[in-house]
């Protein structure tokens, strides 16, 4: 599906998606036009799902990050689908994973302060009959924020 040149391009744009075609072409050994053609194909095929920027939570006034384990009341497809939709629709949830084990979902949630997070829990968790319970872990320091994948 992807060749070695595609992998080189992907490695570069994962680190910096603002590189110009000329800069990418120098790094991967292709012409700028060929690089653009490949990038277009990689985006069309959803190999590149999104082009994003990692924003400083403190700079935008949301310095608290919590990891939240959520357990649903029952494991029925309609409940799972409804919860997935609510997560997708909530901007305070930065990432979410449907997982195996004792919990059903793990969320990364951002907040202005603990009062803001408490208000979020009331609205998002306590007012949702489908949620059996949740456990919160407060992040003390973000060590790494990346979606970069290795190609080895």
**Structural Rg:** 20 Å
Spell the H/E element sequence. HHHEHEEHE
Spatial order of the strands forming the largest sheet = 2-3-1-4
Distance between the termini: 16 Å
Q: Which secondary-structure class do the elements indicate?
A: alpha+beta
- Strand percentage lies at 15-25%
Count of runs of 4 or more consecutive helical residues: 5
Low-confidence stretches: none
Biggest sheet layout:
4 strands, antiparallel
Mean pLDDT: 95
Bin the helical content: 25-40%
The general outline is: elongated
Q: What does the model show?
A:
- With 152 residues, this protein is of the alpha+beta class.
- The protein contains five helices and four strands, in the order αααβαββαβ.
- 38% of the residues lie in helices and 20% in strands.
- The protein has a four-stranded antiparallel β-sheet, with helices on one face.
- A hairpin with a 6-residue loop joins strand 2 and strand 3.
- Helix 2 crosses helix 3.
- The two termini are 16 Å apart.
- The mean pLDDT is 95.
Write the SSE topology.
Layout lengths: L3 H12 L5 H8 L3 H13 L19 E9 L4 H12 L4 E6 L6 E7 L2 H13 L4 E8 L14
Antiparallel strand pairs: 1-3, 1-4, 2-3
Characteristics:
single chain, 152 residues, alpha+beta, four-stranded antiparallel sheet, 4 strands, 38% helix, elongated
In short:
With 152 residues, the chain is α+β, with helices and mostly antiparallel strands. The protein is 38% helix and 20% strand.
């Amino acid at each position: 599906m992807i060749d070695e040149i595609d992998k080189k391009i992907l490695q570069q744009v994962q680190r910096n998606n603002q590189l110009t075609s000329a800069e990418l072409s120098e790094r991967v050994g292709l012409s700028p036009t060929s690089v653009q053609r490949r990038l277009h194909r990689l985006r069309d095929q959803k190999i590149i799902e999104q082009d994003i920027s990692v924003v400083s939570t403190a700079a935008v006034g949301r310095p608290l990050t919590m990891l939240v384990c959520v357990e649903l009341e029952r494991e029925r497809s309609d409940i799972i689908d409804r919860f997935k939709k609510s997560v997708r629709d909530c901007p305070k949830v930065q990432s979410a994973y449907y997982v195996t084990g004792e919990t059903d979902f793990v969320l990364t949630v951002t907040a202005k302060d603990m009062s803001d997070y408490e208000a979020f829990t009331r609205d998002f968790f306590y007012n949702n009959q489908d949620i059996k319970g949740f456990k919160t872990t407060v992040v003390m320091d973000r060590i790494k924020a990346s979606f970069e994948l290795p190609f080895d």
